[in-house]
Amino acid sequence: MIVISDGDLLREALIKQANIFSDRKVNGLISVSFPVEGSIAWQNGDPWKEHRRFMNRTLRTLGMGRSLMGKRINDECLNMCDYVDKLEGNPINPDQMMTTMTCNIMNAVALGKRYDFNDPRFVKLRRDCKEILDNLSNTSIYNMLPFLYHTRLCKRYREAVENVTIYVKNEVIEHDKSFNNNSLRDVIDYYLREVKRGSRVTDEEDDDDEKDNEHTCSFINDQFCWRGVLDLLIAGVDTTSNHTMWTMLHMAYYPEIQEKAQAQIDQVVGRDRLPTLDDQPRLPLVTAIAREVLRTSIGTTTVPHHTTQDTYLKEFFIPKGTQVLGNLWSLNHDPEVFEDPYVFRPSRFLAEDGSLQGLSDVKSFGIGPRKCPGEPMAQQECFLIMAILLHRYNLVFPEGDPIPDIRGRVKGMMLLPDKYRLRFIRR
To answer: Which segments are annotated as binding site for heme?
Structure first.
């Protein structure tokens, strides 16, 4: 295995030589837990390329339109605010609340449904997804010794895999019963349309600036319907929730930055309505805060890549079959790109006139064709969630509680905040 920490070398590998570095070798628990076919994260070759185009197009249609996505996020934020208001300022660990909200947003996009916060089916789904993600971590003992999957030690993980798989498969069955080609509701419906018509569609320009004319989605079959959605549920929920947890922690830790963001929100939005995605261009500080949190506190490495042939990166020889990790932490803390890289400073993304700058320098979602397809949706979520929270509440640590370590802790490919409690005080 090699780890690439130099930004120029990483861009050379994952963008300029993407045809050599974009494969992923399936090993560890993935190899014994789930089929690779239909996985947006683990499948390789032409089927993966087809699937990536399909997913990018579908998410653009369903999740990334500002009005539609804004309504989904707004609805869930209002439900969350109703829950928080009942606390009357009493402290709470917001982790479960945030996970529930982001899971409901993803459910709306992928499955076309939502659950109440305390619905036992939803609690079970969240718990099972977290169990799977925790064990698929690079540092999980089960991931390093996958034969343990068949032992009693992995019983809880096996149950979680079975539960989530059955849940998604049942959703596909129910969607198929009520499928209407003229009214596509969610990601599952778009999968079903491809399966039913064997599919010829016109591709828009995708994330790699490749243009395709009429394109046949010949690889998408029944298994893609549930396997692709399963990837979205497992990976999409926890990462967005983690981003929001980090952002709230930073706002309580840096109250002077929180006050500046609230002042900008009050000036632009006023006190008579909630912020919307349409307000984002006039709320650059909130966007800058979210991006600085991404830079300082989210990604550590890429998911492992795998070379398909011998190659060179500058003077370095990389043989075929080499596992490659991209050091995203290094890119996001490069002193040649970010002055004082270990200082939390959202203003680095603001030009003298207050406009945004340098947002694309942050690489927490990866780079190249394998970067997270849900990045735009996740960015919209975090912006609007935080704008609404800061509009409505002051976020403060409870008196007497220890102040959490702002550096967090590494878990697999993610940096997680220590557990903390907050008081949400109505403004």
So the answer is: 372
